[in-house]
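fyi for ur records
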Amino acid sequence: MASQLKNAPASVNGHIDDLSAEALKSLSLGNEGHVRSDSAGEDHEENSQRGDLLCANPYETLAFLEEEIETEEIPEKEEGQKRPSQSSEKHKELSRINGQINRMKMDQLKKRLRQFDLDTSGSKSVLQQRLKSYHKRKVLKENECHYSYYIIIDFEATCDAHPHNLRHEIIEFPAVLVSTKKKKIVAKFHSYVRPVINPKLTTFCTNLTGITQEQVNFAPEFPEVLRKFEEWLKEHKLKVDMKTFAVVTDGPWDMGRFLYHQCKISKVPYPHWAKTWINIKKPFCNFYNTERMNLQGMLTKLGMNFIGHPHCGLDDARNIARVAIKLHEDGANMRVNEQINFKKPKNLEQRLHTVKCINRNDFNAMIKRRNVDPPRDGEDEYLSDECEDKEDPFEDEEESSAVGSSVCETEYDKEFPSLLVK
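which gave:
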């Protein structure tokens, strides 16, 4: 009988609470008598101890049997299947926690967030994701912070209510430096830029951006501003690699249109540091599970108000930085997700496709190379207008074909109606 109890723990565990002490006593006596008739010596002594324990409290009996089960070496063929891995158990635990969070009401979410000293501002979906991310990092002990700094850039360019093929020129070059360790803005760069093709600003442009004609008249031209910005990078020891910093923008326009075409106008090389960047709209909508929205919408979703003057480049950059800091604090995967596309367009329509997506596999490949885009022959050549009609010196067919699909800028027509050429 002892061997039967040992080999059938589930039965004992399921009914031990229903057995009375007297029933267990009789069970133990029958067990003891049965063993005496077939065994002697050590077997007799062991079964006597088992009988004494079975006569005691039934909960002590259960504890004894469970201890035997844990210490028993079960042959591999009797296991039936492998024990679940530690990783699998952690993900099951996360799934259970996430289910509880999904059922919480707003006041319950805020109460739980306060227990962990987490921010309680934002919509319900934001609070849910913030709490889920906290538990994920705690259970899995994963940290997806790829950079020491974020450089948030938001150019302002010449514009008009009726563009009519207007060639946009950068007239404000702002950048704010965010430390991911300190989770705050630690430095800024700012300069106005004098346009050369359309030196006189339109009334529409001044009203929209707040930039006056006098401010651009006394500003340096773009090549000098770009040189000063790169000196600013060196002053802060910001190396162009995959770990020091990543550029962050609100959409693909700043790099894919304004900077790209400004380098052509000014006949300067497209800067290495701007070849890849984080389009903050993508991690925001993916992490918080929202639709694509503009800067004001993101701030509202996070329970924040816009600080400053909208379409002032420096104020826009500061507010984008606030969103980036919150995404970083909440545990979003802030990695470069777009890059400039130097590939020669096959037709006029494809000239809009100046930006390509960077998927996770492409990003991991960049990490292995430890560089966004290794130097190539002819990299110092400027992007002149003739580059559109012949092979681009930056182009690498094999690498560009491995990158994700192109992004058409017309997706952002609703957000920037005054800047899109129809």
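The first helix runs from residue 2 to 7. thats all i got for now
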